[in-house]
């Protein structure tokens, strides 16, 4: 518990805000805080920490990416500059581009499935009777609360070739060739298990949120839509979706981030195997850099990953900035 | 899976109300009820079954865990005792608790001021700061791990402890800031202005006016943070793995799994013990959680 005694309070004050308006002679602390410098003081500790704990590693990462830094050089404490060769190596390797494509497709497929299933379950929650709704909510909460490592263990076991419930069940259904099927021996089947697990873990967040959002829409709107003879699809398209658009936008954004970043699931389930065929970008960067001790190469992959991520997210950035200006 | 996806389909039934025949309408309603509730059962099973399998397997004997039968006979409650007596299990538990509790407290305390500044002030650089928050959220921790590790190992000499995981929490967490800000934006500015007119300083406004109103959102992000610390696997793997005394449950579970390769019953009992606190916390706080998440998520 000693941990709690570290500088827990982020105290505004201490040092000057980076680009505080020059005209401002704000007093620090307590009552006299000038309203203009207050925001800078409030975000200052976080900014400093972000620069120290994120900016610095990022810069170092870029520097390392221009070096030929492997276990040998690390032990010898030698620095070998290689210019752009780590980058050209990656950009001209088919492994890298396959990994990029795989990551993007993996993210898209998972997010699409999560949003579709999550929306379906959310709408279902809204239509169920009280008791059944509670049961389903309970199930969602249990899936949501299961730690990722625990969930991974469970799915490894469910799909275990010898002792797994899934193969046993498939064999029961007279699909005997599945009796000893090795789910983790092939790219597509491994990805299927990972996807099933990620969807299973992520749907509760979307569904419970959507349901909570649905309860804020007044029943009269749905009634009116029904009076006008709108079916379920029309009601969803012209009432539910437009009203909850911020929810869908925000949730999709979060899911894209979460799925793209998903490391534990991919790594713990099958370590990117078989033979690296299920490595996504974060896993690839980690295995190449830390696992194979090609630190320079790993750093180059990391930098490229960040660039790709920023490109993928630029659309969302634009939307967000536009929203900010409207506030 | 497909059952879940099909969920909204039968909902198309209720629309036509013009049918004059009341009996047809009633029959239709009954059919719809059955259809929707079957889907509900299917969805509930889909989410709950893995958990049930874990529970049942965790109570099986060594021999039975390797067979196909699903119902434990006899119930081997002793599995849990065995897991508890595994060397280190209690230490892992304690470490996870220290990490999750201190991480949550530090994150919330340090993120609230940042979220408040980004939500309730207009200042030059705000958009940049917002972008920074979102960019930080997006960044997979794996991509900065090499320099980060070297920093904590060579400059701070803190690897093999929980400090590299806990210290950064004292400076705000991007996801927490983002969600809190989404919520704070929805609090009308009039409250803040009124407090200022009454002569409250910024800090007083934050503590006396904003915090009480933001309680559900704070509860939600605190729970989120607790879960993500408790479940964190990558962090402990990187910084704590070299020293077994600093292992957390999630990392310990992996090694436990490795050491008991075919003892699925013991692995599942360990899994249950890892999950238990999260589930207990979740059930006690579920209402606050869903409430807060709704407020932060929907009205953004």
Automatic annotation (TrEMBL), chain A:
Q: Where is the composition biased (Low complexity)?
A: 1-10
**Ranges for region Disordered:** 1-30
Q: Which PANTHER family match?
A: BLL4140 PROTEIN (PTHR43227), DIACETYLCHITOBIOSE UPTAKE SYSTEM PERMEASE PROTEIN DASB (PTHR43227:SF8)
The portions of this protein that span the membrane are 38-59, 104-126, 138-158, 191-214, 235-260, 295-317
Give all residue intervals belonging to the ABC transmembrane type-1 domain. 100-316
The record gives the membrane topology as:
Multi-pass membrane protein
Q: Which family does it belong to?
A: Belongs to the binding-protein-dependent transport system permease family.
Q: What keywords were assigned to this record?
A: Cell membrane, Membrane, Transmembrane, Transmembrane helix, Transport
- What is the protein name given in its UniProt record? Sugar ABC transporter permease
Q: A Pfam family name for this chain?
A: BPD_transp_1
Q: Where in the cell is it found?
A: Cell membrane
Query: Any keyword Membrane?
Result: yes
TrEMBL record, chain B:
Q: What subcellular compartments does it reside in? A: Cell membrane
Question: In terms of domain of life, where is this protein from?
Answer: Bacteria
The membrane spanning regions, by residue number, are 33-56, 97-118, 130-150, 162-184, 205-227, 264-285
Which UniProt keywords are present, listed alphabetically? Cell membrane, Membrane, Transmembrane, Transmembrane helix, Transport
Specify residue ranges for compositional bias: Low complexity: 7-17
Q: Taking the first listed entry, what is the main subcellular location of this protein, grouped into a coarse class?
A: membrane
Q: Looking at the Swiss-Prot or TrEMBL record, what is one Pfam family this protein matches? A: BPD_transp_1
Residues covered by region (Disordered): 1-21
Q: Which InterPro entries match?
A: MetI-like, MetI-like_sf
Q: How does it sit in the membrane?
A: Multi-pass membrane protein
Q: Where is the ABC transmembrane type-1 domain?
A: 93-285
What does the sequence similarity comment in the record state about its family?
Belongs to the binding-protein-dependent transport system permease family.
The protein's name in its UniProt record: Carbohydrate ABC transporter permease
